[in-house]
């Protein structure tokens, strides 16, 4: 790996494009065509992510934001185009709108893959726009695979090197750049074209973290879909010869200078050198539970503590000792009263670790629908327990969260339950059971089981098998076969959600 130092530079310096971060990202992406064969483990993991994305997308098809995005996409039909989850086979829409609809479906349940380092990310959000462009442009499964691995490489590198959340910038900015790079790798575009697309994507997808703060709305699901759509459009403009604000990262009025650390900003972004395999995707991990990633180990910890705790009605207080990120993003350190509001929506509750821990402690598990039902959130005993739970930052858990060694990195915490009689029960868990370093790491069988569970009742057994066979053969698929990566669903089951929507512009 090569460490690239990124600094703000005055316009008078006329920083050569080859020295700009956007060019270096683009060069890594376009260099995949000259690199050795894809790393076998990376290729297997890419298939796992396609299965994971399809599972959570199908499970979300009847939810309102997904139905809205789908309806908008269907307002842009085209004879070529791309497929949409939940729509009859053969229907095609313009690729940027397919990226929008499918990206929203994948993101809605907060249930797919994650990577946490200096910043947050859901690298699986790269797949919907890449798949849409692959279908539209007549690419093969092997081309798509190359693009996915490249997008993950760029996304992971940016998340490791540049922190956005400290400046309340939403993490989808890194996604826009990664998607542009992935499309460039998939289409074998020139480095200059990808360079311009990356800069356009960064410029147009920079937004604040208010989308994940306070009363969290459906925009949480739309935000990454918007970034994917914007990246598709940026690549289109760049292919037509259009330029971008440059240098987008290093410019004195650019991203680092005014959105992040200011004129004295300095970052290190590590990227593979020529000929090095692209293995960034192997650093990522998926979710067993439909909730913010920092809550995954907390849910597993609650399942263990439930057996030890005894009658929860006699609890005086529960304190979760955890990392800075967990405390301030989904814990009481956020200062968001909505995280304790029984009337809060799902988007807020899945970012409330006090709520999640209370329900998991009572139920001994987690369900992507039942655990968020309004009647579940308003249960009096749950509300009483929920409001006894707080989080505190523990410097040791923060250090472990940022440990440079992925095998030692920890995203969990320690729970201390104090009862009215003074008895204390406590336990801790470093990583979720499904994490690569956890008690039950997900492998292909785990992804397959998750897919079968989440698609039951909407995808027939035969259609499930057809999709799984297609995903397993990704590298061998022809252009027409890419449609098989969209499981055939019971469209009648989806239609009820569509029928309830008011009309929009499209």
What does this structure look like?
The protein has 506 residues and is an alpha+beta fold. The radius of gyration is 22 Å and the shape is globular. The chain has 20 helices and 7 strands. The model has no long low-confidence stretch (mean pLDDT 94). The chain has helices spanning 21-30, 40-59, 64-74, 95-107, 127-137, 141-161, 172-187, 191-204, 219-239, 255-259, 296-309, 324-329, 346-349, 353-363, 374-377, 380-386, 395-401, 444-455, 461-472, 491-499, and strands at 2-7, 77-82, 266-271, 315-322, 389-393, 413-419, 424-429. It folds into 2 domains: 2-283, 2-methylcitrate dehydratase PrpD (Orthogonal Bundle); 293-429, 2-methylcitrate dehydratase PrpD (60s Ribosomal Protein L30, Chain: A, 2-Layer Sandwich), CATH 3.30.1330.120. A hairpin with a 4-residue loop joins strand 6 and strand 7 (424-429).
Q: Summarize this, please?
A:
The protein has 506 residues and is α+β, with helices and mostly antiparallel strands. Helix content is 45%, strand content 9%.
Count of extended strands: 7
Mean pLDDT: 94
CATH architecture level-2 label of the largest domain = Orthogonal Bundle
Q: In sequence order, what are the helices and strands, one letter per element?
A: EHHHEHHHHHHHEHEHHHHHEHEEHHH
Q: How many domains?
A: 2
Number of helices: 20
Strand line-up across the major sheet:
5-4-6-7
The best one-word shape is: globular
What portion of residues is helical? 40-55%
Rg over CA atoms, rounded to whole Å, is 22 Å
CATH class label of the largest domain: Mainly Alpha
Largest sheet: 4 strands, mixed
Q: Could you say what the CATH topology of the largest domain is called?
A: 2-methylcitrate dehydratase PrpD
Classify the secondary structure makeup into a structural class: alpha+beta
Uncertain spans? none
Percent in strands: 5-15%
Distance N to C terminus:
47 Å
CATH superfamily of the largest domain: 2-methylcitrate dehydratase PrpD
